[in-house]
Amino acid sequence: HYAVHLGEDPTAIYFDINSPYREKEIAAIESLEIPVAIKKVDLIMPEDRITPTEQIIRGRNFILAALGAYFGNEVWLGALYGEIHNHMPDKSNKFKDDFNAIAEYVYHAYAARLVYPFEHMTKTEVVSWALENGITPERLMRTNTCYDPVEQRCGRCSTCFKRWTAMINNGIEEEYPIEPHESEAAQSLLSAYQSAIGENDFSHYGKKRIEETKTALGKIGIKGVL
């Protein structure tokens, strides 16, 4: 939607790399009104390469970017403000620069550039943009961000807490088995945010992201945490 808004003619590609939550992702894609084509490429991802905690697939963005480079002049990675740092290597600026150097060497004249179109936007701001541009709350609620392989929104993982923050800040309430802000993952993030504030170091967790979390908690009457 954002690419079309900018006048681009994008191809949305879903690569099936046999992730634990692939069925949820495919179901979400099929339920959404995507204004561009969806291509599927089947890959086999060894289970021992998937980190059990929150089912994180290490190097996933490298795999996706390398495959995406065959389909256009630019590959968009949805890295958001506060996520682009060396603590997450395949979302860092170094990763982007190094990937582009490799792509130029390997693909020659057909090299696609890896870009981060949302690098200055938080998840709250992305949801706000979507609502302002005709994407309904109902359609946003059909998207998938949760790490759980079965539940649509588990409420326990860090992505559920980040999603909850963005949705609450935009007046959208979703149902969860447990309240995301009460989960262990949320408490761990809040503790990290508190440390960032205390040390005045926002290199890992951006200041705007922390402020938006504070706003979301305030909307449900929780104050003084951040």
Set out the fold topology.
Blueprint: H1 2-5, E1 12-16, H2 22-31, E2 38-42, E3 50-51, E4 56-57, H3 60-68, E5 74-76, H4 93-107, E6 113-115, H5 123-132, H6 137-141, H7 158-169, H8 184-199, H9 207-219
Parallel strand pairs: 1-2, 5-6
Antiparallel strand pairs: 3-4
Short description:
42% of the residues lie in helices and 9% in strands. It is built from 9 helices and 6 strands, in the order H-E-H-E-E-E-H-E-H-E-H-H-H-H-H. It has helices at residues 2-5, 22-31, 60-68, 93-107, 123-132, 137-141, 158-169, 184-199, 207-219; strands at 12-16, 38-42, 50-51, 56-57, 74-76, 113-115.
Structure description:
This protein has 226 residues and is mostly helical. It has 2 domains: 2-115, HUPs (Rossmann fold, 3-Layer(aba) Sandwich); 123-219, no CATH class. It is 42% helix and 9% strand. It is built from 9 helices and 6 strands. It has helices at residues 2-5, 22-31, 60-68, 93-107, 123-132, 137-141, 158-169, 184-199, 207-219; strands at residues 12-16, 38-42, 50-51, 56-57, 74-76, 113-115. Strand 3 (50-51) and strand 4 (56-57) form a beta hairpin. The relative contact order is 0.11.
